[in-house]
Amino acid sequence: MSRGAGRAGGDAPERRSYEPCDLKRAYAAFLRRFPPYADTARIDELRATEYARLGRAGHTYLDYTGGGQYAESQLARHHALLSEFVLGNPHSHNPSSAASTRLVEEARAAVRGFFNAADDEYEVIFTANASGALKLVAEAYPFRPGSVFLLSYDNHNSVNGMREFAHAKGAAISYVPVRRPALRLDERALRRALRGVVPGADHLFAYPAQSNFSGVQHPLDWIDAAHEMGWDVVLDCAAFAPTNILDFGVVKPDFVPVSFYKLFGYPTGIGVLLAKREALAKLHRPWFAGGTITVASVQDEGWYRLAPPPAGFEDGTVDYLGLPAVIIGLEHLRAIGMKTIHKRVTALAGWLLAELTTLKHSSGAPMVRIFGPRTTERRGATIALYLLDPEGRPNDVYEVEAAAGRELISIRTGCFCNPGDGEVAHNITHDDMERCFSEPCAIVSLMECQQVIEDATGKVPNTIRVSLGVASDFGDVYRFMRFVAGYRDRVAEPIG
């Protein structure tokens, strides 16, 4: 029996073509379905001015979880500032150093204001990126035998990597699983894990506010629940902060890493650790560097003192030329409004999820499989998916990415440095993964590991991801749907 048999009258499913000539009509229908989008018209103006290069290049950018897009005015304002000031290394008192120090502190204040982080409660520590912020916490946290480092399955690898420091110090490592199909955390298992620790030791719980794989958004009230049971909390906001309000006057995580290019595209190479002062006091740095100490001696080895934060945690010289661009980027987001950005991407994601999940082959077989929530309830504008052929086989994601690229559509493929979500989404077992790590396999790349699993099990441990952000518009998601519709009734080629 064919997949299409059994439907009343045997009618073929509605054929959606998403032709360019239908864009205007589709947009009108979209506004009727998602009326809040009309409140975000300000961003359409910015798309035509600040982000005009996307249109000039004919580019459809759908990788905001990978990196944000910058506005033209950000570059112009930063260049003008650098052209005006004479700036030098802030580790001095000369005029150029003093000017840099003033700008660095203005950047610190801008970050604190953007996240509503009270000066007497949170410290703002500049790092190279979110990964650097996480490493700073992991290497200095007082793990010891009896401590537990608890992680969710859907953490990014920069969080997973923290476990190596915990393991080296004798702490126990524990993971809370996510469950198919929605890829949400098993909350009962989480609460059992939070309760089941030995009092008196330091315990650290790390989870993402939003999964960078599935878009799942986890409850922020887990922070208070963990605190009540004696845990410190790392809240990874890399995928959450660019399109959601993060208010430290409401939620009180102990450590929050952020990369600024994820928020507003430029500059790259600057991140921040927002740390509760009382939690920061627990950290014991295993080394020192220029700028992090008050006194050091070569002859009397070991006679040195860590400078008070933030200086004691900012290794070497901060990016004093780049930090003014952080102020400019935050002001740009403030001018747009995080509520406006959130409203916009939620509407676009809602339309895209609805269209993807109703797209059918002529046989009636689904063309798309979504990994994670299929609606916008408790999820962000990051969507992981497969494109399926009429027999339910996934199209090779690398071929899909290449085909999209030929149409100047930027999507992302792989596991997105989120192995836990990927393993659960694709039903990859411990034994499946062991094939990649056991001799004589000698796996040296992700693609080789994926091929080994595919050859042995028939499972395809790979994914397509589209994600929306500050400059996204309806034309972007419509063009992506036109691209996806081109796979209707196409038979998948053998992968690899």
Outline the structure in words.
The chain is of the alpha/beta class and 496 residues long. The protein has two domains: 8-63 and 337-426 and 462-485, Aspartate Aminotransferase, domain 1 (Alpha-Beta Complex); 76-335, Type I PLP-dependent aspartate aminotransferase-like (Major domain) (Aspartate Aminotransferase, domain 2, 3-Layer(aba) Sandwich). It is 38% helix and 14% strand. The chain is built from 19 helices and 17 strands. It has a four-stranded parallel β-sheet. A four-stranded antiparallel β-sheet has the order 13-14-17-16, covered by helices on one side. Strands 2-10-9 form a three-stranded antiparallel β-sheet, sandwiched between helices. Helix 10 links the parallel strand 7 (203-208) and strand 8. The two termini are 30 Å apart. The model is unreliable at 1-9 (pLDDT under 50).
